[in-house]
Amino acid sequence: MNTYSVSRLALALAFGVTLSACSSTPADQQPSTQTAPGTTARPILNAEEAKNFTPAAYFQSLAPNAAAWTPSAISLPAQPDFIVGPAGTQGRNPYHHSGGGGCRNCPSL
Predict the structure, then answer these.
(1) Where is the signal peptide (predicted)?
(2) What's the DSSP call for residue 29?
């Protein structure tokens, strides 16, 4: 093998490498290397599959035409039933006098 054939082989190899580098796919057009966050046991659901996992679906009645259960509003009494204080006294509600000023229904504080 003489130098002329080696040079020609090197030139052909360099030309091939140059062409392959020029013809490679741009980075923004290459397929993504990221993997989806789901697994086979816990896949990511599409919109059709996910529609069953809403509060209304969780609290629906087993009766076919009944409405889904919804919680009622919480109502608190205006005055507490019990006020904690030392034994033998009426006790005191710290929130009752939070605005300052006395109250004619309460003993002196």
Answers:
(1) 1-23
(2) G
